[in-house]
């Protein structure tokens, strides 16, 4: 049962966190292009689509820590330092995503819509907001990279799994 739980945990991480990491990383650049008028035609709705991917997969991503905690409990490693650090970093990443990145994307979509309809004063605001959002998304992705390394290396682990 442990191997099944671990497999679901890893698959959920790949299939839920991966799309959020990619979509959130692409969003600021495409929002900037859209505001500058460079994402016309079929590409006009891409920033909104990327935001939707982030929102939906954030909800799906709840399975990652749920199955991770269940697996850790079965392995008896809930008290291991590497896992505690991973859980704290996961909570930080979730907070950045839900409290900063998603609302930032929503605000940027509103401003981008204003620039497309002719409010030129919003162009500078889009550039600035997109830059902040790109930096925060980089931090979010870096946190996930650290969590992945901790999950693979598991410093001090003796489970042998």
Shape: elongated
Query: How does the helix and strand content classify structurally?
Result: mainly alpha
Counted by DSSP, the helix tally is 5
Integer-rounded radius of gyration: 19 Å
Separation of the first and last Cα atoms = 13 Å
What's the order of the H and E elements?
Answer: HHHHH
Mean pLDDT reading = 88
State the low-pLDDT regions, or none: none
Task: Report the sheet-strand fraction.
Answer: under 5%
Query: How many DSSP-defined strands?
Result: 0
Level of helix content? over 70%
How many strands, what sense, and barrel or not for the largest sheet? none
Description of the structure:
The radius of gyration is 19 Å and the shape is elongated. The chain has helices at 2-35, 46-60, 63-75, 81-116, 122-153. Helix content is 81%, strand content 0%. The model has no long low-confidence stretch (mean pLDDT 88).
Give a brief rundown of this model.
This protein is mainly alpha-helical.
What topology does this entry show?
Layout: H1 2-35, H2 46-60, H3 63-75, H4 81-116, H5 122-153
Helix pairs in contact: 1-2, 1-3, 1-4, 1-5, 2-4, 4-5
């Amino acid at each position: 049962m442990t191997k099944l739980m671990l497999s679901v945990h890893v698959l959920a991480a790949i299939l839920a966190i991966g799309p959020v990491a990619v979509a959130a990383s692409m969003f600021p650049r495409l929002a900037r292009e859209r505001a500058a008028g460079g994402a016309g035609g079929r590409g006009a709705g891409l920033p909104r689509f990327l935001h939707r991917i982030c929102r939906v997969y954030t909800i799906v991503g709840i399975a990652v820590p749920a199955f991770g905690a269940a697996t850790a409990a079965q392995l008896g490693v809930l008290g291991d330092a590497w896992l505690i650090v991973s859980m704290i970093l996961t909570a930080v990443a979730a907070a950045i995503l839900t409290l900063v990145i998603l609302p930032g994307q929503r605000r940027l979509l509103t401003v981008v819509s204003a620039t497309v309809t002719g409010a030129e004063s919003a162009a500078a605001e889009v550039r600035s907001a997109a830059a902040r959002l790109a930096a925060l998304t980089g931090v979010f992705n870096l946190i996930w990279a650290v969590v992945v390394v901790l999950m693979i290396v598991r410093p001090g682990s003796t489970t042998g799994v």
